[in-house]
């Protein structure tokens, strides 16, 4: 998982850097050259989507996602682990149903569509949904393994 975290962190960082450059280019062409760039707005829109869809599993894998632990923290140790297992199973089911299955359907439905400015197949943009789902599943399985091990060891 460390390798996946490293790759995701690098990809997200590079994407942010490229987005900053594209945004600066858009400002320069719009206000200084009076000839706005045609591709930057669309690129930034889809780059933000990709960054979000890769950033969500990255944050989840590093346990830095938004979570509400008020209820879980009130339980005893074993019940905390059981609650964490239940949450992971729910996340796993939703990741498979919504992100992977739904993402594949959306990606397949976009076949033949071309983006307006960049002239790329829309599937390039939508494929980030099932990729994000697969990454979430990997992180969920890794966490479930950890929680079941802790439950078995009686921590």
TrEMBL record:
Q: Which organism is it from?
A: Mediterraneibacter gnavus (strain CC55_001C)
What protein is this chain from?
Answer: Tripartite ATP-independent periplasmic transporters DctQ component domain-containing protein
Query: Quick one: a GO cellular component term?
Result: plasma membrane
Keyword Phosphoprotein in annotation: no
Where is the chain membrane-spanning? 7-28, 43-61, 85-104, 124-141
Q: Which residues form the Tripartite ATP-independent periplasmic transporters DctQ component domain?
A: 19-149
Task: List the InterPro entries.
Answer: DctQ (IPR055348), TRAP_DctQ (IPR007387)
Q: Which family does it belong to?
A: Belongs to the TRAP transporter small permease family.
- Please name the GO terms of the biological process aspect recorded for this protein, alphabetically: C4-dicarboxylate transport
Q: Which Pfam families match?
A: DctQ
Identify its membrane topology class: Multi-pass membrane protein
The family database entries (PROSITE patterns) matched by this protein are listed as: PROKAR_LIPOPROTEIN (PS51257)
Gene Ontology MF, one: transmembrane transporter activity
